[in-house]
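Handout, page 2. Input:
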Amino acid sequence: MNAVDTNVLIYSRDPRDPQKQSAANALLASLTDGVLLWQVACDYIAASRKLERFGYDVEQAMADVADMRTAWETPLPTWKIIDRAEQLLKKYSLSFWDALLVAACLEAGVTRLYTEDFDDSVRAEGLEVINPFAAP
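Output:
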């Protein structure tokens, strides 16, 4: 199973970096077994506000989330995720939000997380972190 972080979703709509926008859109189109994590959906809607000056608004972000919800599984958060995030905080050098994202991935059975925000230090937990914008 695959999941994407908020930054990938934002780049798919952000015209300021055409290369990243193209890479994000290609990735999103290729993922058939995706998981839309609750916190990513919420963060995407909030972060989309920075794209308003480019003609992208919250209503469009809400529509995008609705489309992703029909295409991908959307597991709801549980207290187990916070408990697991606490363990990950102690074990790895992650921010709380990154630990929460990793914990949500692990609880949902995600094996690949696409993000540019952190390294693959959590591979030991069974999660591969892939930067879709890194040069091959």
